[in-house]
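Whether sequence alone determines local backbone shape is best considered at the level of individual chains. When preparing material for the folding task, we compiled for one chain both its residues and its backbone structure tokens. The sequence in question and its structure tokens are set out directly beneath this paragraph.
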Amino acid sequence: MTVMGVIVKKDKDCSEQRTVKKNSRDSLVDAFGPVANLNLHHDSRQRLVEIAQWLDNRHYEELKQTKGHVFHKTISNLINMVYIDNIYEPKTKAAKILKKLYERYFELNKDPSLTPMELRKILSEEYAKPEDIRKGKTTVNRKSWSHDDLKPLKDYRWVIQTMEKLDGISREDIKNTSEKK
């Protein structure tokens, strides 16, 4: 009976672990899309962790497990950053302004002498808020920006999706154009 009790408990523990893993995988799919396997050399994985730390200002080297989420997020961010910086050419005035704001934000953000408040003040004097630009409003109103007003600029997927929407472009359009070539 005791042996059976242990086996039943073990089966229950395995079932709970499977549920946790499934939920984790499901949340990754929700956040980053379907699975794409990626094999990396150890040194490349270390560099990826360093890039993640640079992007997020967090320390990930202590993590022994659950780095998958960090890797997924970092790779997604890198793809969108490279696409914004090197490939995508905005068409509309609002999309062009959003790209300039994105570039200016990262230029200023590199300056360690600037406080977050100073950074927000400079940007508020030069650009409309990101959410206003998303709505097509590009007039600078010089109202002070909150911390939350900067968040969209740190979300590279938001930036590229917003530029594409402002330009009236959908991923389906791009896919169809690529297939015709």
